[in-house]
Amino acid sequence: MSLFITFEGVEGSGKTTQIERLTRYLKRRGIPCKVTREPGGPPISEKIRKILLDPNHRKLIPLSELLLYEAARAQHIYEVIKPLLKKGTIVLCDRFNDATLAYQGYGRKIDRELIHKLNRLSSHGIKPDLTFLLDCPSDLGLKRALQRNRLSRNEKEGRFEREKIQFHHRVRKGYLAIAKKEPHRVKVIDTRAGEKKVFEKIREIVDEILVRSH
């Protein structure tokens, strides 16, 4: 069965950890799945990722940022996501269209209707079947992200972590607004409950979908 599941949230919300846990769980059950990310995926999109997340690119204006995200997504859908879904694989993606709306629409204050149009264009009509919004206060998430980057020495991808806290507050507000509009697709999970309880909730929701699809 094909299923497109995306994970969203502010910096430091724990998306990567939960994706890894869900991947292990599905593979133990013999269910084929593939993990990918945005920006990123195929080689061209990964090169765009380096441009977007490099903290040295301080002159990158919001519109250029938006268009680069959309370009990376168009390539990602065409090369990776669409072929996997056609094969009946479950695709787990770290960020997707919602991130662009939250970060560039609410965070950067770019016209949200423009972003909706570009998202539809770049995603070739493909939408997530299910989205997990891992929610936590912006200041807590940012603190976690900065600590993670220091420990992993991943300073080359810290451009968004350097934004002011007000930006991150707007991003979180955007995510919650998206979830309120699409409650059937977007499931909000409070990450303050702890990594284990967060995954229990994710597993419960995924299991329900798997049962219904058989």
* CATH fold assignment: Rossmann fold
CATH architecture descriptor name? 3-Layer(aba) Sandwich
Oligomer: single chain
| Relative strand content | 5-15%
Number of domains: 1
C-alpha end-to-end distance: 9 Å
Low-confidence stretches: none
The secondary-structure class comes to: alpha/beta
Instruction: Please write the string of helix (H) and strand (E) elements.
Output: EHEHHEHHEHHEH
**Full CATH superfamily name:** P-loop containing nucleotide triphosphate hydrolases
Please give the count of helices.
8
Shape call: globular
Strand arrangement in the largest pleated sheet: 2-3-1-4-5
The amount of helix comes to 55-70%
CATH class (first level) name: Alpha Beta
Q: Please, what is the average pLDDT? A: 92
Q: Kindly state the number of beta strands.
A: 5
Q: Gyration radius, to the nearest Å?
A: 16 Å
The biggest sheet, with number of strands, parallel, antiparallel or mixed sense and barrel status, is: 5 strands, parallel
Describe the structure.
It is a single chain. The protein is of the alpha/beta class and 214 residues long. The chain has a single domain, classed as Rossmann fold (3-Layer(aba) Sandwich). The protein has eight helices and five strands, in the order βαβααβααβααβα. A five-stranded parallel β-sheet has the order 2-3-1-4-5, sandwiched between helices. Helix 1 (15-28) crosses helix 8 (195-213), helix 3 (62-86) packs parallel to helix 5 and helix 4 packs antiparallel against helix 5. The longest helix is centred in the middle third of the chain and has 25 residues, at 62-86. It is globular, with a radius of gyration of 16 Å. The mean pLDDT is 92.
